[in-house]
Amino acid sequence: MRKSTLRDVSRATGLSIFTVSKALNGGEGVSELSREQVLKAARELGYIPNRAAQELRKASRDSIAVVTASTSNSYYLDLMAGIQQMLQPSDWTVVVGDVAVNGAYDPALEDRMIRRLIESRTAGVISTLRLSFDNTQLLERWGVPLVFVDSSPPEDKPSLPSVTTDNYNASLMVGEHLAGHGYKRWLFLVYPSKWTSRFDRERGIRDAARFHGAHVDVIESENDPASASAAFADYLAAQGRLPDVLITGNTPLLLGAMTLVRQRAIRIPDDMALIGFDEFAWAPLIDPPVTVLNERSEEIGRVAARTLAAIIASQTEAEARGQPANPQYLPQYRQQVPAALVVRRSCGCGGGPHPFVAKETSR
Amino acid sequence: MRKSTLRDVSRATGLSIFTVSKALNGGEGVSELSREQVLKAARELGYIPNRAAQELRKASRDSIAVVTASTSNSYYLDLMAGIQQMLQPSDWTVVVGDVAVNGAYDPALEDRMIRRLIESRTAGVISTLRLSFDNTQLLERWGVPLVFVDSSPPEDKPSLPSVTTDNYNASLMVGEHLAGHGYKRWLFLVYPSKWTSRFDRERGIRDAARFHGAHVDVIESENDPASASAAFADYLAAQGRLPDVLITGNTPLLLGAMTLVRQRAIRIPDDMALIGFDEFAWAPLIDPPVTVLNERSEEIGRVAARTLAAIIASQTEAEARGQPANPQYLPQYRQQVPAALVVRRSCGCGGGPHPFVAKETSR
DNA sequence: GGTTTCCTCCTAAACGTTTAGGTTTTACCG
DNA sequence: CGGTAAAACCTAAACGTTTAGGAGGAAACC
């Protein structure tokens, strides 16, 4: 049994390739009889269209890419869920492109990925990290709309859309909570600035510390647990004592820090309090349950997907009117999603079996 | 700035399309001067080839698909890592196809996915779940090699390759450990048989129970935490008391069960012991640290990828000799990877700060 | 009977590459 | 300078679709 083409179906039915194509795609101008014959023959021959040929002919763009690094971060799964939810119905194909090898971001991989996406004439891109200037340039040149999530565009392209947590206010809120506990010496363990949410988070923490008369040390680690563990250990070795509270920039860093905490038998929150960015499924089950800033990645995904879809729609509409097909980026496409603090035990809040309070950042 | 084609580059250089193509692809028979000119022009024009056209012409098959459901299960990330590791160097593109919507497996989605994969002339498929007979049939008809991981082929196609954990022996080992603790009443909370690893796991647990004179109840839950929680609650309501030990079939089910455990303030391992299938990053940090059967998904991924690559290679070789291009499935393609028991505290093993013992299933 | 209208179906030209086979140019040699 | 071989390049045909434009015939109208 061999791979069959439209021509095979055409031969089998005695109808022309044109008619067969029309019949299969539900077009007008085909008699019911012919259509039935075609469908029957196609089924029997196991005909499945060749997508490459379709795309070539239709210049079709029906897939959307999500660019990500360090997929192991669980927020990414929620993000994807949000995106899928929004895009599935209008049947876009969502593909994910990982630009990390063995968990570490690789610029060469970023270049390769963007090229690939253009090669396959992707309709739009959602990126979880700041892309290089050249790559945003390239996408623009090829008229591929781009939306950043949880990250901001390169400085030279400030008008590009982005959907982020309200990181600054969220961090202020975290700081306020810590100050409420009376902690004076904070440690912020954070990932590299390739993930640009770092800037606002760090700024918020620093401002909160200044405002509340606390001192904050910031240490940077690669975006994986092992590096985080090492960075934390180095800090402790240099300082000789624990901070009042450790703030971890995201879940992989939290995992790394917790591993060291366990090894050194550090008691939380007695010896040191702990608070983390990003909610995750196991947080309530850890010993002790971890207080966390929930950044609502699913909602972020939905907003980003909706935005991208809108841009593409207006683009194809302009194209239909024969106008230049460059994506139009409106100012209102820069959006922030509020975050909520999920208070558990690690921050020092005592509590019954389920200490669970949620506050929201004001918008 | 508009999208440029080979023809544009050709016009810009005064060379023919043929020469331009050769030059870009590093082919012979192009003078150094011409090549330079072509590369320069291509760069200036921002030329990027159209993949659809290339694929159509070359009938190229350079991507491999991983079919999965319920991505949220973290073992899948390790699996992917193993596959990528093996396939990245030979520059296959690995795409993942999720056949679950909102975490729930959907047969219609499976059909759609397989069709899509054939449409895009995917070179090979790795599936984490048993596919329908029709779909395996379809893939076979189109000459697309198929390897199952952590799951087995439909009964009608027993010769298809599969790479699984040595689930039966692993389960025996789990049972033996439980018997060693003297537990007599076991509860096995397990996912639906769509994921075929269930069969061997259940059989192993049952055999071990029989051998050691224990009683085992098996309850089935959908493959997500909420369902697991509900199923466990139902069981408790019906029984009126806790089992000696709860065995969870995978990580999402463990999460669901643990959530209920926390709600009901069940003390582990005092009130009930706990042991789970599949290792995951947070297991050592849970309260108490969870004893787990580590199924080595990364290794499974590597083996599966290697097997698939071998099948494809022999297939293309046969094709080159003008022979039938159906994939050849050899008996040795059915492989089992040993698993290891990671003993922590939840099973009742007391222990210092790091009770960490690893045993392997004998092969 | 001639004209118009409507259906159904067809031919042929694209889409942007790769490649088989051929032709021109260049380089070299006697 | 003629002849030959290699190098450089070209023309044209494919790959499997979709689609613009039109042919053919039957029914409907005058």
From TrEMBL, chains A, B:
Residues 4-58 form the HTH lacI-type domain. InterPro entries: HTH_LacI, Lambda_DNA-bd_dom_sf, Peripla_BP/Lac1_sug-bd_dom, Peripla_BP_I. Pfam families: LacI, Peripla_BP_1. This is Transcriptional regulator, LacI family. Keywords: DNA-binding, Transcription, Transcription regulation. The lineage of its organism: Bacteria, Pseudomonadati, Pseudomonadota, Alphaproteobacteria, Hyphomicrobiales. GO terms for molecular function: DNA-binding transcription factor activity; transcription cis-regulatory region binding. Gene3D superfamilies: 3.40.50.2300, lambda repressor-like DNA-binding domains. SMART domains: HTH_LACI.
